[in-house]
C-alpha cells in the first residue's frame, strides 16, 4: 500500500511519472516510425513500467493511466498492421509475453490480444479466457483494477454477442457473459481488498479512494446489461445469481450498496420483476450497515415507473405477486436491522405505498396494509420526535390524498387515522389542513354521517386543542386560516336525504362543541346555515319527514339550533349569536312555526338587553332586529305588537340622539309592510316619524348648545325622505302639508345655520327637492299628489 504523503509530494510523483511516459513514448514513436518492433516493445514496456507506482492516489493514478492509454492506442494501430512489423499476430502474442515485468507485460498482452481477436485467427472466447486468467498475475488493488478496466475497454467491441462479427460456432453469448462475469469477480475482489491494506488510521482515506474507484467495477455490470442475447432465462439462471453471490459474499458495506444500486439501474425492469424474489432475498442478506432502504426504494421506484409506462404490464405484477414479496422483504429488513432509525423505516413504507398506488390503485386493502405496518412500527417508538421521520409520515399520509380524486376513498382506510395519531400536534394540524385542501381541490362531497365521523376524527387537531399548553401559542393569522378552512369544509358536507343530513349535522355539532371559545365563532355559523338549509329543504318538500332514529323535522332541527347558538352566546360572542338567532327566526317564519320564531326573537332581545353594551353594536343590532321583524309575517297581532313595542322601545333608548332618531324612523317600517297581506297601520307610522322628528329637534338643540350652531340637517332630510316614501305608498295619514312643513323647517334650519357663512344648502336636501320637482313635472296621478307642495 502506498505511503501517506502530502498533495505536493503526489503532484511531484505524478509529474515524474508523466515525464517518464512522455520520454519513453518519444522513443517508442521513433521506433514506430522506423517499424522497429524490438525497439517498440522495449520502449513501450519502459513506458508502461511507470504504471507500477504505488505512491499515487486513485485520482492521480487515473491521470497517469490516461497518458499511457493514449499511447497504447497508437501501439494497437501498429500491431494491427503486420506489414509494418513483419510478424504474424500469433507470434506477436507469444513475443510480448517475454516482457520483464508483469504489469507492462499484461498491458501489452491485452493490446495484442485485442488485435488477435480481431484477426479471427483464434476463437475470441479462448483469447478472452486467456487474458482474464493471466491478469490475475497483478494483485495490487489499484494497479490490478486499472489493468482489468483496460482489458474490459479493449474487449468491449469484440465480445461474441448476438449480431457481432465474433459470434460463431465456437463462440456463444454465454462465453461473452462468462468473460465479463469473471472479470467483474476479480475486480470486485481487488476493490474490496483495498480496505485491508495499510494501518487502520487511514481507513477513512481508504474509503474515499475506494469510492473514487467504484465506477471501474460497475462498468462490468453496465457491459453485462448491454450484451445482446442475454435473455431473461440466462439472466435468471446465470447472470443474476453470479453477481449476487459476489455482492453477498464480499461482506463489504460500500461494495454491497454500490453493486446493488448498479444491478437495479443497468438491467431491464421486466428482468427485475421476474427475478424479484431472488433480488429481495439478497437485500435481506446485506450487511446491517448497508443503507438497504435506498436500495429497496430505488428498486420500487423503477418498478413503479415500469408499471406506469404501459397498462399492458400490470398483469405481470399480479402474476409474480410483487406487492406481497416487496412487503415481506421490507418487513424482514426492518425487523433484522434493529439499529435502523425510524426515518429509514418510514422512507421504506412511503416507497412501498407509492409503488402500491401506482401499480394497484384499486387495491385499497394493500394500501391499508402498508399503513397498518407503519402503525406497528410507530407503536414500537415511545414518541415520534425525529423531524425527518415526521416528514416521511406526512408524505405517507399525503400519497392517498394525491392519488384518489375522491377523498372519500381515503376515509375508508381503517389505519389512516391510527397513523395520524402518532403525529405531534403541529404536524397533525398540517396534515389536517392538507386533507381539507384536498377536499376543496377535488370538490368532494362527504355525504354520510359515518364518513363525516372519520373525517372529523382525522382533522381533530384543528377542531380542538390536543395539548392545552400550546393553545395560545399559535399565530392569530394562522389560527384564523385554520378555522376558516374548517368552516369551508362544513359546507362540503351534504346529503339529499334529510334524515342522513340531520345525522351529519349532529355529528359535526358534537365535534365542534369541543372546540372552545376561540373556535366556536368560526365554526358555529356554517353549521347553523347548513341546518337552516336543511330546514328550507324540508319546507320545500312539504313538511316533516320522520326517520327511524332521529326525526328530521324542522321543529327538531330548530331545537338543535337553539342549543347550538346558546353555547355561542355564552362564549361570549353576543353580536354573532344575535345574528344567528334572527336568521333562525326568519327560517322558522318560512316554515310557519310562530312559537319557534317568537322564541328566537325572545333570545335575540335577551342577548341585546344583557350582553350587548357597546353603543355601536347596539345600533347595528337594533337595525338587524327591525329589518328581520319587518320581513316576517308569521306572527299574530299580539306577538307582533309585543315584538314591535320592544324594538321601538330599544330604539328610543339608544345613547346618541342621531342613533335614536334613525332607529325610531326605521321602526316605522314595522307598521307598513308593502305586501298585499302586509300590515298597513298608517297612524302608527306617522307616530314613529313624528317621534323621530322630535328626537332630531332635540339633537339640533343639543348641537346648538354645545357648539354654538345647530349643525347639519341630515336627520331632518332623512325623515323627509321617509315621509315621501310613505306618502307615495298611499299612507293616508301622511299629507302634502306634512311634507311642506318639513321642507320649510329644513330651509329655516339651513338659513339660521348659514347666516354668517357662504355655505350652500345640504346636497342631500337639494337632491330630495330635485326629485319632488321631477315628479311634479312628470305629471300623472303621482304628480297630482305632489301639486299642493310648493318648493
TrEMBL record:
Domain of life of the native organism: Eukaryota
Membrane topology qualifier: Peripheral membrane protein
Gene3D superfamilies xrefs: Vacuolar protein sorting-associated protein 35, helical subcomplex Vps35-C
GO cellular component labels: cytosol; endosome membrane; Golgi apparatus; late endosome; retromer, cargo-selective complex
Localisation per UniProt entry: Cytoplasm; Endosome membrane; Golgi apparatus, trans-Golgi network membrane; Prevacuolar compartment membrane
Main location, first listed in the record: cytoplasm
Short name of one Pfam family: Vps35
Alphabetized UniProt keyword annotations: Cytoplasm, Endosome, Golgi apparatus, Membrane, Protein transport, Transport
Function description: Plays a role in vesicular protein sorting.
Family named by the database record: Belongs to the VPS35 family.
Protein name, entry field: Vacuolar protein sorting-associated protein 35
Amino acid at each position: 500500500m502506498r505511503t501517506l504523503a502530502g498533495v505536493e509530494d503526489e503532484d511531484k510523483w505524478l509529474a515524474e511519472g508523466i515525464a517518464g511516459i512522455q520520454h519513453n513514448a518519444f522513443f517508442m514513436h521513433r521506433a514506430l516510425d522506423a517499424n522497429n518492433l524490438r525497439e517498440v516493445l522495449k520502449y513501450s514496456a519502459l513506458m508502461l513500467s511507470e504504471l507500477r507506482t504505488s505512491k499515487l492516489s486513485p485520482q492521480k493514478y487515473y491521470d497517469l493511466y490516461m497518458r499511457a492509454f493514449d499511447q497504447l492506442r497508437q501501439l494497437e494501430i501498429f500491431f494491427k498492421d503486420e506489414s509494418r512489423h513483419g510478424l504474424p499476430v500469433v507470434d506477436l502474442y507469444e513475443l510480448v509475453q517475454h516482457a520483464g515485468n508483469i504489469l507492462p507485460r499484461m498491458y501489452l498482452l491485452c493490446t495484442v490480444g485485442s488485435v488477435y481477436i480481431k484477426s479471427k485467427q483464434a476463437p475470441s472466447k479462448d483469447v478472452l479466457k486467456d487474458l482474464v486468467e493471466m491478469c490475475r498475475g497483478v494483485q495490487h488493488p489499484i494497479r490490478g483494477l486499472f489493468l482489468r478496466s483496460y482489458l474490459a475497454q479493449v474487449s468491449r467491441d469484440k465480445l461474441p454477442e448476438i449480431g457481432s462479427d465474433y459470434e460463431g460456432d465456437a463462440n456463444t453469448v454465454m462465453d461473452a457473459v462468462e468473460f465479463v462475469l469473471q472479470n467483474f469477480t476479480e475486480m470486485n475482489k481487488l476493490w474490496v481488498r483495498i480496505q485491508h491494506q495499510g494501518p487502520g488510521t487511514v481507513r477513512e482515506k481508504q474509503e474515499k479512494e475506494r469510492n473514487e474507484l467504484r465506477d471501474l467495477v460497475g462498468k462490468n455490470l453496465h457491459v453485462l446489461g448491454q450484451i445482446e442475447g442475454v435473455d431473461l432465462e440466462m439472466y435468471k439462471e446465470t447472470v443474476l445469481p453470479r453477481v449476487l453471490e459476489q455482492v453477498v459474499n464480499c461482506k463489504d458495506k460500500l461494495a454491497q450498496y454500490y453493486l446493488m444500486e448498479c444491478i437495479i439501474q443497468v438491467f431491464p425492469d421486466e428482468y427485475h420483476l421476474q427475478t424479484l424474489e431472488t433480488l429481495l432475498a439478497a437485500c435481506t442478506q446485506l450487511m446491517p450497515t448497508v443503507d438497504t432502504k435506498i436500495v429497496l426504494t430505488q428498486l420500487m421506484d423503477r418498478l413503479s415507473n415500469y408499471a406506469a409506462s404501459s397498462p399492458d404490464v400490470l398483469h405481470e405484477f399480479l402474476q409474480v405477486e410483487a406487492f406481497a414479496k416487496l412487503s415481506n422483504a421490507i418487513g424482514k429488513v426492518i425487523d433484522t436491522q434493529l439499529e435502523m432509525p425510524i426515518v429509514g423505516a418510514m422512507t421504506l413504507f412511503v416507497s412501498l405505498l407509492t409503488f402500491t398506488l401506482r401499480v394497484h390503485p384499486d387495491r385499497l386493502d394493500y394500501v391499508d396494509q402498508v399503513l397498518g405496518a407503519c402503525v406497528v412500527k410507530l407503536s414500537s417508538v415511545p414518541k415520534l420526535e425525529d423531524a425527518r421521520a415526521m416528514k416521511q409520515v406526512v408524505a405517507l399520509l399525503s400519497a392517498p390524498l394525491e392519488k384518489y380524486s375522491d377523498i372519500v376513498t381515503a376515509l375508508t382506510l381503517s389505519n389512516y387515522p391510527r397513523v395520524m395519531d402518532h403525529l405531534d400536534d403541529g404536524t397533525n394540524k398540517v396534515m389536517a389542513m392538507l386533507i381539507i385542501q384536498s377536499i376543496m381541490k377535488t370538490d368532494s362531497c362527504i355525504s354520510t354521517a359515518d364518513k363525516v365521523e372519520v373525517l372529523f376524527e382525522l382533522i381533530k387537531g384543528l377542531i380542538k386543542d390536543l395539548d392545552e399548553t400550546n393553545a395560545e401559542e399559535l399565530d392569530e393569522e394562522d389560527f384564523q386560516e385554520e378555522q376558516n378552512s374548517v368552516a369551508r369544509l362544513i359546507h362540503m358536507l351534504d346529503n339529499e336525504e334529510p334524515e342522513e343530513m340531520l345525522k351529519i349535522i349532529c355529528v359535526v355539532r358534537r365535534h365542534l362543541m369541543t372546540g372552545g371559545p376561540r373556535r366556536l365563532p368560526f365554526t358555529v355559523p356554517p353549521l347553523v346555515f347548513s341546518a337552516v338549509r336543511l330546514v328550507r329543504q324540508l319546507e320545500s318538500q312539504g313538511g316533516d319527514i320522520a326517520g327511524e332514529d332521529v326525526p328530521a323535522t324542522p321543529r327538531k332541527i330548530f331545537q338543535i339550533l337553539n342549543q347550538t347558538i346558546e353555547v355561542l352566546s355564552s362564549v361570549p360572542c353576543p353580536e354573532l349569536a344575535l345574528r344567528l338567532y334572527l336568521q333562525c327566526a326568519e327560517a322558522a317564519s318560512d316554515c310557519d312555526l310562530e312559537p319557534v320564531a317568537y322564541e328566537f326573537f325572545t333570545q335575540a332581545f335577551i342577548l341585546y338587553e344583557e350582553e350587548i353594551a357597546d353603543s355601536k353594536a347596539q345600533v347595528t343590532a337594533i337595525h338587524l332586529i327591525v329589518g328581520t321583524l319587518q320581513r316576517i309575517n308569521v306572527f299574530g297581532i299580539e306577538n307582533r305588537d309585543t315584538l314591535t313595542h320592544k324594538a321601538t322601545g330599544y330604539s328610543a333608548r339608544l345613547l346618541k340622539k342621531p342613533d335614536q332618531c334613525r332607529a325610531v324612523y326605521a321602526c316605522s317600517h314595522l307598521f307598513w309592510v308593502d305586501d298585499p297581506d302586509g300590515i298597513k297601520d298608517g297612524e302608527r307610522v306617522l307616530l314613529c316619524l313624528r317621534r323621530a322628528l322630535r328626537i332630531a329637534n332635540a339633537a339640533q338643540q343639543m348641537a346648538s348648545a354645545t357648539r354654538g350652531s345647530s349643525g347639519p340637517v341630515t336627520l331632518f332630510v332623512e325623515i323627509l325622505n321617509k315621509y315621501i316614501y310613505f306618502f307615495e305608498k298611499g299612507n293616508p295619514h301622511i299629507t302634502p302639508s306634512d311634507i311642506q312643513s318639513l321642507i320649510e323647517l329644513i330651509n329655516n334650519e339651513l338659513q339660521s345655520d348659514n347666516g354668517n357663512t357662504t355655505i350652500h344648502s345640504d346636497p342631500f336636501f337639494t337632491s330630495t327637492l330635485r326629485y319632488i320637482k321631477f315628479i311634479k313635472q312628470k305629471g300623472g296621478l303621482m304628480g297630482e299628489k305632489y301639486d299642493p307642495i310648493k318648493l
